[in-house]
Structures are given as C-alpha cells and as structure tokens.
Design goal:
Its cofactor is FAD. Belongs to the protoporphyrinogen/coproporphyrinogen oxidase family. Coproporphyrinogen III oxidase subfamily. The chain is of the alpha+beta class. It has 15 helices and 24 strands. The model has no long low-confidence stretch (mean pLDDT 93).
C-alpha cells in the first residue's frame, strides 16, 4: 500500500532554510518517514547573506565572515555535511577601539566589554580617571529594580557610566546588530548579563566568577594561539554549496516567490508567482519578518512584526599589494566609538585574522559603514563609498596608491533590530500563527538570534515542531 507523502515547503534558502531542509530529509531517511521537502528561494542563488567571492587568489566574504565555535550547531552542520575538515580558526591578535583618532587596545580581561582584570583597565587610555572611578561603582551599586525588558544602554550606563559604555561596551555589543544600544533589548540580545546581575549583583565580580578560565589552545603545527571563531578554508559559501549538493534532487526551486497563502483544512495552499499552486502539509517560513508580515496581511495576522525595525549597512573589501599599506599596529582590526567623527564603524585586517583568505604579497581590508541614524552612506555610489572609506582609513594607517580592486556590498533595510520588547513581539506573532495556521512555523534571523548558529538552531527547532505536528511524535 502506498503511503501518502507529507509535503513540507520551506520558504527561503538562507542558512536557516538550508539547514531545515537538510535535517528534515535526514530525519525522514533515518526514521523512514513519508516526507517530501520543497525549498523555495526568490532569488537565483542560495545562502542568503552568506556570499563568498573568490577572485585572484582572494577569498572575500560579502556578508558574515565566521561564527562562534562555542555555539556548536554550525560545526555540527559542517560535520553532518562531511566538510568539517575544511574548517579553519581565526588567528588571534590585538583588537582596538578607535577613539579621538587613536587606536586604543581593548583592555585585557574585558569580557564583552566588562572589565574583569583591574590592572589593564586602569592602564587603558580609553577612559579618563573620572570614567574609571565611575565604572568602579559597579562594585557597590544594588541590583536593578527594572521588571521585564530594558535597553542595553540603560542597563550598562547605570552600572558603569556613560564613558565606559560609549568607548568600549557599545562598539563591542552593538556591532553585530548595527543597532542603537539605547534601544536594543537586553532580554533578546545579551540576557546573560541580566542573570549575572540578578545572581551576583556586581557585573564585574559576577563575570569573573562565572566565566570559565581559558586554557590557551595552540595550533599543533604553528604553536600559535587559536581563536574563538570558525570559517571555511574556501569561504562560508562552502557550507551553502555542500548543502545544496546534498539535498535530494528536485528539492530546490529558485527564482520563485509565494504570492498568496490560504488555509484549506489542515493544509496550506501556496500560489506562486509563476502561476503554480502547491498544497503543503506544513510550511517553515525562514524569510525576513517583513516578507512574512506581507504574506499574511490579508489574514490580519503577523502585523506586529512590522514593529521590528531594520537598518541598512554596507561592507567594503579592499585588496592591496603588501607594500601599499603600512600598519604600525599589530592586530586583527578595530571598532569605532560613536563619539569619533568617522563614517566607518569597524575594519577587519582580514589578511591577519584569516590568513587563508589572502595570497602572499597581498593585503585585504574589510571596512563596515552604516548603522542606525547613519544610513545615508549606504545609498551612495560605489566609488563614493570607496573614497570615504579610504579617506577614513588614511587617517589611521598609511595607504600608498589605489586598491587593486574593491568590492562594495549593500544590505538595504536588511539588519533586524532587536529593540526593547522584541521577545514579546515574536511570541505574539507565533501565537497568532499557531491559532490561524498551526502548521506554519517562523524561523530565522528576525526572531531568536542573528548569528549563523542561532539561525540553524531555529531551523532545527522548526523541523521538530513540524515533525511532531505531522506524525504526533
């Protein structure tokens, strides 16, 4: 007797959608479940923000360049795809904060901006004596009386004062979100700090007690210290290409959008922009929140997702001959304090941080521009963005001549902002969906974490929800 297969449609071919498709098919094979998976991607390529350019011996990332090793899901995905041997760790080195036209080393012992060693903090030129004394208030201040969510800025300014926040904590914590620390949700971005204060009162003492002592790991060949991040020898697109290759034939549909979604009994009817109709037993939506909101607008649900703001950013990769750039600072890059008069927000010295990306005799820099309140630069022509970036970099390092080539990448209204109340907005949207379309699930960077491992975790969780719903496991 033929068993009717359950059709699961995954909308969006970024890392969330790819991992969901892979693990759904893997589980179906291992448990002999009758499932057909269809992955629909609106563009003509997979990977979402992951996009690697391989040019003239360079490996250049247009989007994310790595992921935290301590978050295991990306490494596990690589292992399950059979490409774990392609993983490489970043080279360690001093990182800096640009303040008042000077690159100041991030003090040793700083854990995400929180000082846990007194001597490096006292010696740092990042802060005035007044700022250091104010930060010491953390030792005596009581716990916060705020109930529920609050902004990162409010939380940290109360404990350390404005100077420590503006010159150290803000550049370190807000960069990944390109956000405003005074609007970012503590609960949805860095809830561990709230828990540390709740348990230990002092963040400095609490972080010192709760952070495991680091045992320096060294490369077995070079003997040098190993970093906390992984990428792939030939770029992050390696994992996208491996996933695409290993998904079952006929799974992927590129260049197609969903026009409408309707409910028919326990199923969803998807009408595509090519005139085709797909009847799905379950749907995993991994697109951005605005696309999800628009799709369900005719049903009057998910409209609260429009309250999730986005911002625009751009990255500028610049390749040079080695002798064209003179750097008198050893290290892997720097972040820019908001108080500094620069258009760039950060710069990675890629040839140092990721040596496998850059041919011998060359230098690769990657600068970032655009954040909340300073997004107009993203709309400028490529050559104008390049000029501004080179002008900013020229104030910090010596650059002789023009780059061999430049690659500008824009992400327009693309970076979700986890503002205060974010968790409640996402929970409300999922509750609406559960009521109206119980077999449609939301996952991806707009909801419960923007990092690559976070997105994979969400994809796998959505797969579990779908399987439990379809087979009452």
């Amino acid at each position: 007797m033929n068993v009717q297969k359950k059709k699961v449609v995954i909308v969006g071919g970024g890392i969330t959608g790819l991992s969901a498709a892979f693990y759904l098919q893997k589980t179906a094979r291992e448990q002999d479940l009758p499932i057909e998976v269809v992955l629909i991607e609106a563009s003509n390529r997979l990977g979402g923000k992951i996009q690697t350019v391989r040019r003239d011996g360079f490996v250049i990332e247009r989007g994310p360049d790595s992921f935290l090793i301590r978050k295991k899901s990306m490494d596990t995905f690589a292992k399950d795809l059979g490409i774990a041997d392609e993983l490489v760790r970043n080279a360690t080195g001093q990182a800096y904060i640009l303040v008042d036209d000077e690159l100041q080393p991030i003090p040793g012992g700083s854990i995400m901006g929180i000082p846990t060693e007194v001597t490096p903090f006292l010696k740092s030129n990042l802060f005035s004596l007044t700022g250091k004394l104010r930060a010491a208030g953390d030792f005596v201040l009581p716990r916060s009386g705020v109930e529920g969510d609050q902004s990162l800025g409010h939380f940290f300014r109360r404990r350390f004062g404005a100077e420590i926040v503006d010159n150290l904590i803000e550049p370190l914590l807000s960069g990944v979100y390109a956000g405003d620390i005074d609007q970012m949700s503590l609960e949805s971005t860095y809830p561990q700090f709230y828990e540390v204060e709740k348990k230990h009162r002092s963040l400095i003492l609490g972080m010192k007690k709760t952070t495991p002592k680091k045992v320096p790991q060294k490369d077995s060949h070079s003997g040098s210290k190993q970093g906390a991040f992984h990428s792939f020898r030939n770029g992050l697109s390696t994992i996208v290409e491996a996933a695409e290759e290993q998904l079952e034939p006929g799974t992927i549909r590129k260049g197609i959008r969903i026009s409408t979604i309707e409910k028919r009994g326990n199923q969803s009817v998807l009408r595509l922009n090519n005139g085709e109709t797909i009847v799905a037993d379950a749907v995993i939506m991994t697109t951005g929140h605005m696309a999800a909101s628009q799709l369900f607008e005719p049903h009057g649900i998910l409209q609260g997702l429009k309250e999730i703001h986005t911002t625009s950013v751009a990255t500028v990769a610049l390749a040079f001959p080695k002798d064209a750039v003179i750097q008198d600072k050893e290290g892997t890059g720097f972040l820019v304090s908001r108080s500094s008069d620069y258009s760039i927000t950060a710069c990675t010295w890629v040839h140092r941080k990721w040596p496998t990306t850059t041919p011998d005799g060359k230098i690769l820099l990657r600068a970032f521009v655009g954040r909340i309140g300073d997004e107009a630069i993203v709309d400028l022509p490529d050559d104008e963005i390049e000029r501004i970036v080179l002008e900013d970099l020229g104030k910090i390092i010596t650059i002789n001549g023009k780059p061999d080539f430049t690659i500008v990448t824009r992400y327009k209204e693309d970076r979700p902002q986890y503002r205060v109340g974010h968790r409640q907005r996402v929970a409300a949207a999922k509750a609406e969906l559960q009521q109206a379309f119980p077999m449609v699930k939301l996952a991806g960077a707009s909801y419960e974490g923007v990092g690559l491992p976070d997105c994979i975790d969400q994809g796998k969780a959505a797969v579990e929800d779908v399987l439990n719903g379809l087979f009452e496991r």
